[in-house]
User: Fold these one by one.
Assistant:
Number 1:
Amino acid sequence: MFILDSKNGQTLHAKIYNQIKNQILSGNLQPHTKLPSIRNLCAELSVSHNTIEYAYQQLFAEGYIYSKPKSGYYVSLLDSEFAQPSRKHSGILSGQNSQKQRTYAYDFHPACLSPESFPTQVWRKLFMDCLQEDAKQLTSYGSQQGDFALRCEIQRYLARSRGVACEAEQIVVCSGLQDSLSIIVPILRENHSMLAVEDPGHFIPKSVFQNHLFSVTPIPVNSDGLDLIALQNTASTVVYVTPSHQFPLGHIMPVANRLNLIDWAQNVGGVIIEDDYDSELRYHGSPIPALQGLRPQGNIVYIGTFSKVLSPALRVSYMVLPQRFLDTYHKLFDDYSTTVSLLEQRTLYKFMNQGYWDRHLRKMRTIYKKKHDTLLQAVNRHFGAQVTILGQGAGLHVVLKLVNNSLAEEELISRALAKDVRLIPLSKTCLCNNSRQSQVMLGFGGININEIDRGVELLYQAWY
């Protein structure tokens, strides 16, 4: 049965063509089924002979139907790869989408931000200003390295707040950590083949470098961050580190270790990839200066992002390349286009240039410090001496090490889920099949401050 929708703006023959094609692809019209004659379909739909004939001819030309002399048109036998796509996948996709959209009463995800944190009104105004000022930007791709004015603002910000010494020409605007690393890998491939990563540590570097056929060596982490002795005992010549706030354990690498790490890179002809993870969100004392500032002329690739304080949805990050890498970078990537919207870059430039970024940063530090302190108070109130807190004082999460608790991580998370509390497995950050038994990440960025105490109380009830 075919129905012509009068609200649809398509021509009549296009409507008939699309309905028959969709029924063939969905399996509602089986192979070798005879279609209604042109005369009968004309009468059924009250349309002209030419309308039906045109639709049938188009279906015939594309192979959806075939004809038999003096008999009419029949449905073609299509390859199973093309037939019934909607029936084959609809149930699976529906299940996946519903799973992703699940909400929790208490969500301790370690990388979520406060829902009310984004400066919507200011961003909208600046975005509209960019649209009205220069319509030409809508017809061009922009520099692959990123908008120059934005790079200048990032350079000034890094110099005054992180101690990074660089020029705007060394900065590349990227769309997140994996984008940054995907640019770095081809630059390093000619002289390097092995990457050392923190264990536990961020999982994205491991995936990106392995996808580019690098060997990945896990290096254990101690209270001073990356274990330098273990690093020196490997054949790796590239290392990925988070020295200012190690992810996920939160340790800070002392300056003596930083200098030793720089010396290691110089001695082996190696490269340090410094991810300044959560560097802006330090709640006690002054921010820890970047490792790059200790040896600006060294082989140190510095990576930062706006995701942890502004918005992960914008997909805007940046990296600082050593001067000696610039020729190779331009040779490999000058024909590429930027992966970040030029309008978003221009808006972010205005946001920084007009002082909104600094004010927003101060506001976010205040908000997240209150949540951080509230979480610590709740943990101490409900767990007392039954936990040790790791990584406090910075970032958007802490790690709880449970005392006198033999439950495996899977059981801890399962029991929390039964209380409608969401946790992300710490084992996801481990490379050596280390389940980090009785340790869990507890994020506080996205949860309402008034719900933190009750959420922690439910965790205590679930585990003890």
Note: Residues 201 and 429 are 5 Å apart (CA to CA).
Number 2:
Amino acid sequence: MVLEVDTQRRDPGMFGPDSAAWRFDREAMLLLGAGPRALLLQLAHPSVAAGVDEHSDFRADPWRRLDGTLRSYLRIIYGSTPAARAEIRRLNALHRGIRGAGYSARDPALSMWVHATLVDSTIVANDAWAGPVTRDDAARFYEETKPIARAFGVTDRDLPHDLAAFETYLADQIGPDGPVKVGATARDLAESILHPPLPGVLGRPGVPPRLYDWTLWPSLGLLPAAIREAYGFRWGPLERTVSTWLVASWRAWNPLLPASFRQMPQALAAERRLRIVPPRQ
């Protein structure tokens, strides 16, 4: 029997199943750790913090921004080529209207910083929680993500040419003379990340918001120490012990859980998309 192939459904997208990106971004727990870390790093840049503060409802609904960021990122990583390109066009159009005193979301330098936080957080979370990530795998992942940076307006002048240059860039950005300085706006917005209103019935009055902030401690542990200290986050024996226990528990249970529970639905959908479609009757 001859099988027909639906070429659109079989499109592997911008990366494909053999890419480091598909491997690094599939585990839900890793992205839930990388996501808050990347968001806190983004807000540590005063211009990004100002843009988020002035052009979003972040304080009222931080879950929405994190969910939207992850959905967009995963659509680009796992979506078909048309879907990924459509998402890039949508985000570029959205960012054109985000500007204020001294900043623009279309600034190549700011776009590079936002891109860098996602790339670095993915590598760091995988290395710390599922790793170790080899130097070759990290370099491959970085190379794979460079076209995304260019698609969002990052120029070759602003885009580090390899992993070593990327690491130097990160160190310079958060160093004493770099532009990334945690300010009052970032600290204020960070409260919405660490103590967000819970969705649905869990968000009813009377539920103490700090009752569940310990679940984000592993993400805080992934931050560069200087950034964590600049935010004023506590990182003592209690926070380190709970974080270690949470990560160890995830590692122990993860192999026993079904893929449908522990892996991102976008990754599973991409794998289904690449299967041969039986001929229509």
Note: Residues 1-7, 276-281 have pLDDT under 50 and may be disordered.
